[in-house]
């Protein structure tokens, strides 16, 4: 079932400042102030993320790979999964308070946020994988060919119409360009605990 999605098959939620497709992938330059967040703790709603989305069917997974090269506070990239304006998930790597961290924001009306530092990932290829299976969306990630690590398990309505794909945001600067190297759909993970 694994197949690569062409960059031209997706639709942007918000057009980046600049996008160019090359033989080695897609280069997207985020607009300054771009972000996705709803209310919690900060009180604001930001809905200006650059997410390139295509349909994601039940019992399938989306994988996005990018080169991690961040320098601005809250620079971020990974996968974005959208049901509607108030129901979405973003998961990937974010530069927060000077360190790269792997995390996710799950939004159902209001957002939550989880982060875990990933020292040594800078400059390397990061893959974020989201599996849609049953009533759950399971996020895993890895750097280069290292083992997958579990990031998050979140509820996702099995009947929902879902779109997913790569995203980037640059809340604090104007010159973040993310090099996405692949976008594909695969079979979902067999189980939450592969060795069980």
From TrEMBL:
Gene3D superfamilies: 2.60.120.200. InterPro entries: ConA-like_dom_sf, DUF1349. PANTHER family: REGULATION OF ENOLASE PROTEIN 1. It comes from Microlunatus antarcticus. It comes from the Bacteria. Coiled coil: none annotated. This is Regulation of enolase protein 1, concanavalin A-like superfamily.
